[in-house]
């Protein structure tokens, strides 16, 4: 290798890079990357493209690359994004300096590439060869199979065809490196492509106003769903904004990104030296260093964030009381309490309310001496929650369930959302952990799982009971949870009561809990029965929030439920001439009655009545057959769209999900009707005074 390492400036004490050993694969778990058992936040810069050097590659000469990598070590960088395939010698150098590469594989995406079978074959081959060149190297982190396909090209081919081709390219990359991570770098102009099948979500975003950036980051988190969000490009032109403004804007972006739970940031760019389209770019200066590698003020600003602990230290740590209500929870209680013990939060307590368990729940809980244990006879979930609130000493009371494990930074992200806001409550997502058998895997993607409902990207209408936190004073003002709800419905009731009182509920997409779903079909159907009962009971407390079929009528968008995939119509793009506006405005078709009607009890009963009537009258049962066929079609479409764990994907799994899509709503509806009738019979008739 060229250059003399002894003459280079070494990183400051405490940030000396550790050379990468054998290839240590970064894994995806929920919204974050993990290296072994530790979270791995990408702290990156973009590198290139450059003019072709004497070595024949689109990178600087080796001594310059060595100097760049040494300075990056000072900066705290652990990831490098390239726009061309790096040669082996550059990968070797990166490994020496502890750098992993996010490798962009360039291809002809600025032409009508789908109009030619030859071009498509060339693109597939380009992806395959690019992956093969880097797949075995210890410095390879992940691949990008595309970057900002222009909106006019997308509109020429159609978003559906382009999306399908990107999915195809991802499959090509996986075929050539089954263990490698793959993504696509999207940007606001083509946000509507909805590239949600990659290993992690990448977005290039250039927004200078902090408020705008934070709002769009919230949107991107929801678009990324349960996957890590990487801001794969953002930067500031110091030529137009000035070097000091560049530093200030980057400070805002990095502060917002890490505070809001981005899994990584890639700053564009490392240096002002930039070569594209056959020319050196002279009228932009996005680098943290200039072309001569002299540091700009932004270098020191970025260094402060890249060498600091993540998630960022909060300005204060109010005490949080974590309440776990347990009833016959021996299967999951140990893993739940073990995860709570490892929370990265300096000021919290854990209160377990053992609500009359008849199994080993009490015995398991007593092994954890850090837990405040309260045992009582079985009184139901809401009463147990209220007992936990009464015992709590924290300013914030957070709830999770005994069949959940929490992310180590769960409380940090919840509290960060509370700080500086007037929010009464904050919730987060609950994700399904990997299961080891087919049935629980299928149950995890079936309708009816606990989920959140968002009114906007940051404001929730409903947060799930297994992941919710409240200001204790607010809970006391509304007298806590309603004892009527013994097993479910308590979270829906309290969210609507809070909103009726004028309070706002926030949502933190990276405050994650892992929620074990039911592990048998019978347990799943029993759970749906419980939800049906709860909906009937909630109805009598909030009748205006239900439709004519007795189902909750949400104002917001439901996330994480399979039924949300049954949508009709395509989003309409309104922003900019020919859809080239920087930030697209999307008008999605509203969820209509037809989107869920075929799965309702009422539809199926009507079809059965028509079928029996046709048989008795001797007429042909075409209408009932058509209704039943529609129902079957809905179930099959939902099963085909379900994101089943790749270890279990197959005909058997799809059929099981289709059956659960059919049975779940029916069981829920039957129980809902049963309890509504039962409650109505308790109502006393209105007595009128005799005239």
Written overview of the protein:
With 691 residues, this protein is α/β, with parallel strands linked by helices. It has two domains: 5-306, Alpha-Beta Barrel (TIM Barrel), CATH 3.20.20; 320-520, Spore Coat Polysaccharide Biosynthesis Protein SpsA, Chain A (Alpha-Beta Complex), CATH 3.90.550.10. Helices cover 38% and strands 16% of the residues. It has 20 helices and 28 strands. It has a ten-stranded mixed beta sheet, with helices on both faces. Strand 14, helix 10 and strand 15 form a beta-alpha-beta unit. Helix 19 (622-641) crosses helix 20 (651-682). The protein is globular and about 100 Å long. 44% of the residues are buried. Residues 1-15 have low confidence and may be disordered.
Tag the structure with descriptive keywords.
globular; Spore Coat Polysaccharide Biosynthesis Protein SpsA, Chain A; alpha/beta; TIM Barrel; 10-stranded mixed beta sheet; 20 helices; 691 residues
Please give the order of strands in the largest beta sheet.
16-15-14-17-23-19-24-22-21-26
Q: Write out the CATH superfamily name of the largest domain.
A: Glycosidases
Q: Supply the number of structural domains.
A: 2
Regions with little confidence, pLDDT below 50 for 5+ residues? 1-15
Oligomer: single chain
């Amino acid at each position: 290798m060229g250059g003399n390492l002894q003459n280079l400036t070494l990183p400051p004490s405490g940030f000396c890079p550790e050379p990468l050993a054998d290839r240590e694969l970064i894994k995806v778990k929920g919204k974050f990357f993990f290296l072994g058992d530790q979270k791995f936040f990408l702290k990156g810069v973009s590198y290139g493209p450059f003019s072709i050097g004497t070595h024949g590659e689109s990178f600087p000469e080796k001594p310059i690359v060595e100097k760049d990598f040494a300075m990056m070590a000072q900066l705290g960088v652990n990831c490098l994004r390239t726009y061309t395939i790096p040669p082996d010698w550059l990968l070797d150098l990166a490994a020496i300096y502890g750098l992993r590469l996010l490798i962009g594989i360039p291809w002809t995406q600025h032409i009508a590439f789908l109009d030619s079978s030859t071009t498509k074959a060339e693109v597939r081959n380009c992806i395959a060869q690019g992956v093969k060149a880097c797949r075995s190297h210890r410095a390879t982190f992940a691949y990008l199979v595309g970057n900002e396909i222009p909106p006019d090209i997308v509109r020429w081919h159609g978003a559906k065809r382009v999306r399908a081709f990107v999915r195809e390219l991802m499959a090509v990359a996986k075929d050539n490196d089954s263990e490698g991570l793959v993504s696509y770098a999207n940007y606001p102009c083509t946000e509507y492509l909805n590239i949600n099948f990659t290993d992690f979500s990448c977005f290039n975003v250039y927004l200078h106003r902090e408020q705008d950036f934070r709002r769009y980051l919230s949107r991107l988190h929801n678009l990324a769903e349960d996957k890590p969000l990487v801001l794969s490009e953002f930067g500031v032109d110091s030529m137009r904004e000035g070097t000091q403004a560049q530093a200030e804007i980057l400070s805002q972006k990095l502060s917002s990104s890490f505070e809001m739970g981005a899994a990584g940031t890639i700053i564009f760019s490392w240096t002002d030296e930039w070569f594209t389209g056959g020319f050196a770019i002279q009228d932009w200066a996005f680098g943290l260093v200039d072309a001569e590698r002299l540091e700009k003020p932004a270098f020191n600003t970025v260094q402060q964030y890249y060498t600091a602990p993540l998630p960022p230290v909060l300005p204060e740590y109010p005490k949080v009381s974590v309440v776990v209500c347990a009833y016959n929870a021996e299967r999951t209680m140990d893993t739940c309490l073990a995860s709570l013990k490892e929370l990265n939060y300096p000021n919290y307590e854990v209160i377990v309310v053992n609500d009359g368990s008849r199994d080993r729940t009490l015995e398991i809980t007593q092994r954890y001496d850090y837990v405040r244990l309260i045992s009582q006879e079985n009184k139901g979930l809401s009463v147990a929650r209220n007992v936990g609130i009464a015992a709590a000493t924290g300013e914030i009371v957070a709830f999770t369930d005994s069949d959940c494990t929490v992310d180590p930074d769960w409380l940090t992200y919840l509290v960060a959302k509370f700080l500086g806001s007037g929010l009464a409550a904050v919730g987060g997502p609950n994700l399904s952990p990997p299961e080891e058998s087919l049935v629980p895997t299928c149950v995890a993607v079936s309708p009816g799982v606990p989920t959140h409902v968002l009114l906007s990207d940051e404001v929730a209408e409903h947060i799930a009971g297994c992941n919710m936190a409240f200001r204790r004073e607010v809970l006391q003002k509304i007298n806590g949870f309603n004892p009527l709800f013994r097993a479910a419905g308590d979270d829906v009731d309290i969210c609507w009561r809070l909103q009726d009182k004028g309070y706002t509920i926030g949502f933190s997409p990276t405050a994650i809990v892992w929620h074990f779903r039911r592990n048998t079909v019978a347990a799943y159907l029993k759970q749906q029965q419980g939800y049906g009962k709860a909906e009937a009971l909630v109805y009598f407390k909030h009748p205006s929030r239900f439709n004519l079929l007795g189902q909750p009528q949400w104002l917001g968008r439901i996330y994480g439920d399979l039924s949300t995939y049954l949508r009709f119509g395509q989003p309409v793009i309104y922003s900019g001439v020919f859809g080239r506006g920087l930030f697209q405005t999307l008008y999605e078709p509203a969820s209509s009655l037809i989107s869920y009607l075929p799965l309702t009890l009422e539809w199926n009963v009507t079809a059965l009545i028509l079928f029996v009537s046709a048989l008795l009258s001797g007429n042909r049962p075409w209408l009932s057959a058509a209704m039943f066929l529609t129902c079957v079609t809905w179930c099959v479409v939902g099963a085909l769209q379900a994101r089943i764990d790749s270890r279990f994907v197959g005909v058997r799994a799809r059929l099981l999900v289709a059956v659960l899509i059919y049975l779940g709503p029916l069981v829920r509806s039957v129980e809902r009707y049963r309890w509504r009738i039962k409650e109505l019979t308790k109502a006393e008739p209105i007595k009128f005074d005799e005239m």
